TrEMBL record:
This protein's record includes keyword Membrane: yes
The name this protein goes by in its record: Sugar ABC transporter permease
Subcellular location: Cell membrane
Transmembrane segments: 7-25, 179-200, 212-233, 309-327, 368-390
Domain of life: Bacteria
Domain ABC transmembrane type-1: residue ranges: 175-389
Ranges in a coiled coil: 111-138
Membrane topology: Multi-pass membrane protein
PROSITE patterns: ABC_TM1
Keyword terms: Cell membrane, Coiled coil, Membrane, Transmembrane, Transmembrane helix, Transport
């Protein structure tokens, strides 16, 4: 029966493997390559040298065309013979690739032919340019160089991308910004969320309406919420920026999003406003599992409200706090859309998180090899955070169970 029951978890295992494990493995693989989509010699994962047939055919065609066009200007019979010999070699090599396309593997013999033709063509074109007035003197050397570029070297770099990341100041700044944003916002959300949860846990008139309305900020899409807060923070007409300036928190309304401290504070406040209801919802579920009889017994024993909170509520709420903190910390550490819409990582990279930096490297620069290293750094940090939470908060929970 147990063996048959195990078949029910096979779909879950497949989903986890496809949507969770495989992307991580793929990203990890990219970290060992200099994988750049804006460079066609690196727009793939090449462990061995390869040959770009289309680039070679294009280069060979233009070399033939340009040399034949300049043939009337070449008067020395010996030079003419060299040009004809080179053209014949190019034609012969063209025939070897006439039924191939794209990027292909080649053996050592063909590789040597290509390299030898390139060297001979480069030397011949240089000699002809010095000796004769060629019509294509400016373009011919560049076309010849494309023959050499047809040989695609392996872009496997091993641990070089990791070494580069650890020496990259932008990575450390982004990591610092991510940690500041994560722990500041989660700490505020825990305190405010616990207060909201305790209020919503009280028996009162309109309890359902209060619980429902409190979840409205969390239900708003993050990009929409960020856009809304960008208007409130605007230095010229934003009411929040004007209010902060009037009570002396900032010197000028424009300082809120145009200074490093103001921009980070603004991002944290926007995140706290949006996700505190989610934290409160998780903690409310934990509060409702605590029997009312424990509070009655505590009151009979003379415990006041503060003592009941620290002796009854917090210890019994620890499993719910673990879940809430774990979910919110991991979510905050991966923050992207809120800061991207609100500040774009500015000013001067002061709010640029690891997610935003990896996005810029991978999609703005199309450097997927190095960008994947930043993603793996995030993955390791998330794993460390989860482990620490489980060790610190989860140990006592498991012991009590």
């Amino acid at each position: 029966m147990g063996f048959r029951g195990s078949f029910f978890i096979i779909p879950i295992i497949i989903l986890i493997a496809v949507f969770s494990v495989w992307p991580v493995v793929q990203s990890f693989t990219y970290t060992f390559f200099d994988y750049q989509l804006n460079d066609r010699t690196k727009a793939g994962l090449y462990l061995n040298e390869r040959f770009n047939v289309e680039l070679y055919n294009e280069s060979s065609t233009y070399v033939n065309l340009f040399l034949k066009r300049d043939m009337p200007n070449i008067t020395d019979p010996e030079d003419v013979a060299k040009v004809e010999k080179l053209l014949a070699r190019l034609d012969q090599l063209d025939k070897e690739f006439e039924d191939k396309s794209g990027v292909v593997n080649i053996n050592e013999e063909v590789k040597n032919k290509v390299e030898l033709i390139y060297e001979d063509a480069r030397e011949l074109v240089a000699a002809l340019s010095e000796k004769y007035e060629l019509q294509t003197e400016q373009n011919l050397p560049k076309i010849v160089n494309d023959i050499d570029r047809s040989m695609i070297e392996s872009n496997f770099v091993g641990l070089e991308n990791y070494k580069k990341a650890f020496q990259d100041d932008f990575v450390w700044v982004a990591l610092k910004n991510t940690l500041v944003f994560t722990f500041s916002s989660v700490a505020l959300e825990l305190v405010l969320g616990l207060g909201m949860a305790m209020i919503m846990n009280k028996s009162m008139r309109g309890q359902g309406f209060i619980r429902t309305s409190s979840l409205i900020p969390w239900a708003i899409p993050t990009a929409v919420a960020a856009l809304m807060w960008s208007y409130l923070y605007d230095g010229t007409a934003g009411i929040v920026a004007q209010m902060f300036a009037s009570i002396g928190l900032i010197n000028e309304p424009t300082d809120l999003l145009l200074t490093s401290g103001g921009a980070m504070t603004a991002a944290i406040l926007a995140d706290v406003w949006k996700t505190t209801p989610y934290m409160a919802l998780l903690l409310l579920a934990g509060l409702q599992t605590i029997p009312k009889s424990l509070y009655e017994a505590g009151a009979i024993d003379g415990a006041d409200k503060a003592q009941q909170f620290f002796r009854i509520t917090l210890p019994l709420l620890k499993p719910a706090i673990l879940v809430a903190l774990l979910f919110r910390t991991l979510d905050a550490f991966r923050v992207f859309d809120l800061i991207y819409v609100l500040t774009g990582g500015g000013p001067g990279g002061s709010t640029e998180t690891l997610s935003i930096y990896s996005y810029k490297v991978m999609f703005a620069q199309t450097n997927f090899g190095y960008g994947s290293v930043i993603v793996m750094i995030m993955f390791v940090c998330v794993a460390i955070i989860a482990t620490v939470y489980v060790k610190i908060l989860g140990a006592n929970v498991m012991e009590k169970n």
